[in-house]
Design brief:
heterodimer; A: 182 residues; mainly alpha; 63% helix; disordered N terminus; B: twelve-stranded mixed sheet; 8 helices
Chain lengths: 182, 364
C-alpha cells in the first residue's frame, strides 16, 4: 500500500502501487557509472588501442555488458574494477584480431610516415612516441595505473598475479624512460 | 635498512608500499629523490593518457545503443552478450541511494505528450508530414472531461529508479490539474495542484520524511500550466517526428488484442541545433483505442541529451463528476503548511514563501 502521510488528498487517484514496482533501474545506474568512469575508461582504451574508433567501440561494448550485468543481478561490488577488467579483455581481443588482419593505418605505417627533419619534437611528443612504442602489456599496465587502479584491481584486469604488478610496472616505466632518451 | 629497490620505489609512488618502506623513503635522501623522479615520470605518462578527451557524442551514442539493445531483448528474453565477465558469484544487489530528482513537471509533460495528445493522432500510418501535423493540431484540444492517468517514468537523473506519476487533468480547463510523483517504495515525492475555480495553487515536497505544502490563494491566471507546456512540446515533437522518413510499423496480434509498434530506428547523433531532436523512439500503441501504452526515446532537448521511458499503467475518463477537492492538496495531520502570496509563477511563489518563513523563524 501507499504509505504517504498525505495520501488522503490524493484519494481520487490513489491506488496501491503494486509489488512489482522495480526498486532500481539498471539503465539509470549504467548511465550514472558512465558519467563517473566513462572518461577514464575511454582514456584507458584509447591508450591501449591507439585508435579512437576502436576505443569508442570498446567503451560502448563495456557499458552494454554492464547493463546486462546489472539487469541480471550481477555482483555490484567494485564496479570500477569490473569495468576496467571487461574493457581490458575487449582491448586484448581487438589487439589479437588486428594481428590477424591489420587495416592500413597511417599512424602505424613507418614506411609512409616520414619524419619531418625540420621540426624537432618537443619533450611531450618524445614521451608520447616512447609510450606508443612500448609493448602492449606495458601500455596496458601503465594505463591502468594511470587511471588510479590499485595493484589488486590491475591484477584482476590484466590477468597477472598481484605480487607481480609492482615489478612489471617498474620495468615498464624503465623501458619507457629508456625509449625517451633513445 | 638498505635503500629501496626500484620495485619498492614504484610501490611507494603507487601507494602500495609497506609502512617500513614508506618511512624509509621519507627518511632517506637518496630514496626520496628516486621517489620524486619516478612519481614525475608516472605523472608524465598519466598526462599523456589524460590528454585524450572522450568525444562529446559518446554519451548519446551509449544511450542509443542501450535503447536499441532494450528493443532487441524485449519479448525474447535477456539479450545474449558474448564475452561478458563474471567476477564472482552474484550477491544481492545493494544499490546506493542517491538523491532522487523527481521532475514532476517534466514527467507530466512527457506523459501528456504520450498519453494525452499523441493517441488522438489516430492509427500509426505513413501519412505525409502535413497531414500528421494537421491532425495533431486538430486533436490537441479535442479532449473533454476529467482524465485520470497513472504511469511509470524512467529518465536521466532518476538514480533511485523509475517514479510513478498520478495525475488528474480537466481537459476542458488546462489550468485545472493535480499531479503527484511517487518514489519506487511508494512514498510521495512531490505534487502540484492548481484550480482556477478556487483560485488556489499548492505545491508539495517531501523532505526528510515530512511533507511541506506551499499553499497560495488568489492566484494570477493564466500561469503557463503543465498541459500548455505539453502542448508546446507536442507541436515540436510532431515536427521532429515528421522529419523522420524511416518510421517502421509492426502489427502484433496477441491475447490482449492488436498492438502497433512504431519505431524510429537509431540514427547517429549529430550536433543538435534544434530545440528537440530524436535519435531513436519506440511507441507501443493499443489497437483498440490507439492510446500509447509504452514510449521510449533518446535525443536532445535544448541541446541537452535525454533518455526517457514511459509506461502507462491505468487511464480513465471520469467525466465532469469529480469530488471538489480533486484539484487540491489537502494537508495531513503531520504535514507542514506554508501559506504564501501569489506571484507570476509557481517557482517564485515557492522561493518567496520559504524565504519569508525562514525570516520569521529568525525573528526578522
Amino acid at each position: 500500500m501507499v504509505t504517504t502521510i498525505a495520501s488522503s488528498w490524493m484519494k481520487a487517484v490513489d491506488r496501491p502501487l503494486g509489488a512489482t514496482t522495480p526498486t532500481v533501474d539498471p539503465q539509470a545506474e549504467t548511465l550514472r557509472l558512465f558519467q563517473e568512469h566513462g572518461t577514464a575508461l575511454y582514456r584507458f582504451c584509447r591508450s591501449v588501442l591507439r585508435q579512437t574508433g576502436d576505443a569508442e567501440d570498446v567503451v560502448q561494448e563495456t557499458f552494454l555488458k554492464l547493463l546486462h550485468h546489472l539487469q541480471h543481478d550481477g555482483d555490484t561490488r567494485n564496479l570500477k574494477s569490473w569495468l576496467f577488467t571487461v574493457a581490458a579483455n575487449a582491448c586484448r581481443d581487438r589487439t589479437r584480431w588486428r594481428l590477424r588482419w591489420l587495416p592500413w593505418n597511417a599512424e602505424r605505417d613507418d614506411r609512409t610516415v616520414e619524419p619531418d627533419v625540420r621540426l624537432q619534437p618537443d619533450t611531450t611528443e618524445i614521451a608520447r612516441r616512447a609510450f606508443r612504442a612500448l609493448a602492449p602489456r606495458d601500455r596496458l599496465l601503465l594505463s591502468l595505473r594511470a587511471q588510479g587502479l590499485s595493484y589488486k584491481d590491475i591484477a584482476g584486469a590484466s590477468g597477472i598475479r598481484e605480487q607481480s604488478v609492482g615489478r612489471l610496472l617498474s620495468r615498464a616505466l624503465e623501458r619507457w624512460r629508456k625509449q625517451c632518451v633513445a | 635498512m638498505r635503500c629501496l629497490s626500484d620495485v619498492d620505489i614504484q610501490a611507494v609512488v603507487d601507494g602500495e608500499a609497506s609502512p617500513d618502506h614508506r618511512v624509509h623513503a621519507d627518511a632517506c635522501e637518496a630514496c626520496r629523490q628516486r621517489v620524486g623522479e619516478r612519481r614525475q615520470q608516472m605523472e608524465t605518462i598519466a598526462s599523456l593518457i589524460d590528454a585524450d578527451g572522450m568525444p562529446s557524442t559518446m554519451a548519446a551514442r551509449l544511450r542509443q545503443a542501450m535503447s536499441a539493445n532494450a528493443g532487441r531483448s524485449s519479448g525474447t528474453g535477456p539479450a545474449e552478450i558474448q564475452g561478458s565477465t563474471v567476477l564472482r558469484a552474484s550477491a544481492p544487489s545493494r544499490w546506493r541511494s542517491v538523491g532522487l530528482i523527481s521532475a514532476v513537471a517534466t514527467a507530466a509533460v512527457i506523459a501528456l505528450v504520450v498519453y494525452g495528445v499523441l493517441p488522438r493522432l489516430g492509427a500509426p500510418t505513413t501519412l505525409s508530414a502535413s497531414e500528421v501535423l494537421g491532425r495533431s493540431l486538430q486533436t490537441i484540444s479535442s479532449g473533454q472531461g476529467v482524465e485520470q492517468l497513472e504511469y511509470e517514468v524512467a529518465m536521466d537523473g532518476m538514480t533511485d529508479g523509475p517514479v510513478v506519476i498520478r495525475q488528474v487533468i480537466d481537459r476542458d480547463n488546462p489550468h485545472r490539474y493535480k499531479v503527484a510523483s511517487y518514489r519506487p517504495d511508494g512514498t510521495i515525492a512531490t505534487a502540484v495542484s492548481q484550480d482556477p475555480a478556487t483560485q488556489q495553487r499548492s505545491q508539495l515536497f517531501r523532505v526528510d520524511g515530512t511533507n511541506y505544502i506551499v499553499r497560495v490563494g488568489a492566484i494570477h491566471t493564466p500561469v503557463l500550466s503543465i498541459p500548455q507546456m505539453a502542448q508546446a512540446l507536442v507541436e515540436t515533437s510532431i515536427g521532429v517526428m515528421q522529419a523522420k522518413s524511416d518510421q517502421q510499423l509492426t502489427i502484433e496480434d496477441g491475447p490482449a488484442g492488436r498492438r502497433y509498434v512504431v519505431e524510429i530506428p537509431p540514427v547517429t547523433p549529430q550536433n543538435a541545433t534544434s530545440t528537440l531532436d530524436l535519435f531513436s523512439a519506440r511507441a507501443v500503441i493499443s489497437g483498440a483505442d490507439f492510446r500509447i501504452q509504452e514510449f521510449a526515446a533518446t535525443g536532445t532537448m535544448l541541446r541537452q541529451p535525454f533518455s526517457v521511458s514511459v509506461k502507462l499503467r491505468t487511464h480513465e475518463y471520469v467525466g465532469g463528476a469529480v469530488p471538489a477537492d480533486s484539484f487540491a492538496i489537502t494537508p495531513g495531520p503531520d504535514d507542514v503548511v506554508l501559506d504564501g502570496q501569489a506571484a507570476e509563477d509557481p517557482v517564485t511563489e515557492l522561493i518567496t514563501t520559504v524565504l519569508r518563513e525562514l525570516g520569521r523563524a529568525r525573528g526578522k
